[in-house]
Every structure is written in structure tokens, then in C-alpha cells.
Design a protein that fits this description.
Order of helices and strands: HEEEEEEEEEE
Distance between the termini: 86 Å
Number of strands: 10
Structural class: mainly beta
Mean pLDDT: 84
CATH architecture of the largest domain: Beta Barrel
CATH topology of the largest domain: Lipocalin
Low-confidence stretches: 1-13, 19-39
CATH class of the largest domain: Mainly Beta
Strand content: over 45%
Number of helices: 1
């Protein structure tokens, strides 16, 4: 005994094109309607005041009286700060990326140069000052703690200071300090 194929089905098992389209569209609409309500997304980086605390560093800079240059800009909907820098006296150059993790409420930085050096650090940023720390090795391959501070001196001057500590931060030795002067437009 053959079963009744149901409404909208033609004899021979063929469903009408309109019926297939209507059923597919209905299923799609119902699947979206059945999705659970989601919590509001966290504030985008552009509106997050915590994520905007390093904006004082944005712009084009002359570094160390013209011995170097730097451009600092935002990417990924203002969630990622990128510094592209280069020496004007050698082929030394690098890219630094810094971002605030909204889940961890911590800043992370990755500092990389074309000589194979990579520094992965985490830290905190306050208005006009940032500090990142991470593990490293000295010239004798002994473990050390590295620190980089990015300090706004005034609206047109920023200092970047790299330091190291052999005693887990009890004492710091300055490796180098760079003065950034904002280029005039």
C-alpha cells in the first residue's frame, strides 16, 4: 500500500518549486527566531576609555634627534596599536603591537625587530604612562626580567625606556632611552 505523500507534493514524488522555496525560507526564519537572546557585546574598543589610554602615542615621530623615525597608528577597529619604527643610520627596524585584552583586563605587547629579537610582555596603562614586563635573557644567557615604559612627557614628547633586572625587579638597569618628538604636519 502506497502512503499519501502530503499536501504540495505532486504525484511521482516531485514537490513544487514554490513549496520547496517557501519551506526553506520558513525554516530559515524559524531558526533565527529560535536563537537564544545574547548578552550585549562588550563596548567596542573605540568607545572603551581603558583601551584609549595609549592614544597619546599616536602619530608620526622623530626619534632621538632624527636618528630614527616611528609611526604609531590603530588597527582592528581601534583595538590594536601598532608602532612601525626604523633607524635612520642603519637597517634596524621593527614592529610593535600592543592591545588591551577585554577579558583579562590586561595590556599585552609584542615587540619584534628585523634582527630576530622578540619580546612578549604584559602590563598596565594609565593616562600618560604605560609599563610592560616580560622574561628575557642577558648576554650570558641568564634569565632576566625586561621592562619597557612609554611615558608622555607633554603632548609632543614621549619617552620610551627599556630596562632589565637580574633580581626580579628589585633593581633596574637602563638599557636605552629614546625620546620621541612629534613631527609637525
Amino acid at each position: 500500500m502506497q502512503e499519501y505523500p502530503g499536501p504540495g507534493v505532486r504525484f511521482g514524488g516531485q514537490m513544487s518549486v514554490r513549496r520547496v522555496f517557501f519551506l526553506a525560507l520558513s525554516g530559515l526564519i524559524l531558526s533565527f527566531a529560535a536563537l537564544p537572546a545574547t548578552a550585549a557585546d562588550p563596548a567596542p574598543c573605540a568607545a572603551n576609555t581603558a583601551a584609549r589610554q595609549l592614544d597619546y602615542w599616536l602619530g608620526d615621530w622623530s626619534v632621538d634627534s632624527g636618528r630614527g623615525r616611528s609611526t604609531v597608528h590603530l588597527s582592528l577597529d581601534k583595538c590594536l596599536l601598532i608602532e612601525s619604527w626604523a633607524s635612520n643610520t642603519s637597517g634596524h627596524r621593527g614592529e610593535n603591537v600592543i592591545a588591551l585584552s577585554s577579558e583579562e583586563k590586561t595590556w599585552f605587547g609584542l615587540f619584534v625587530d628585523n634582527r630576530g629579537r622578540v619580546h612578549s610582555m604584559s602590563g598596565a596603562v594609565a593616562p600618560g604612562a604605560a609599563e610592560f614586563r616580560g622574561p628575557g635573557r642577558d648576554d650570558n644567557d641568564s634569565p632576566i626580567l625586561k621592562r619597557v615604559r612609554i611615558i608622555q612627557v607633554n603632548p609632543n614628547t614621549v619617552d620610551q625606556i627599556w630596562e632589565k633586572s637580574a633580581n626580579n625587579g628589585a633593581q633596574w638597569t637602563t638599557e636605552f632611552k629614546m625620546e620621541y618628538i612629534r613631527k609637525k604636519p
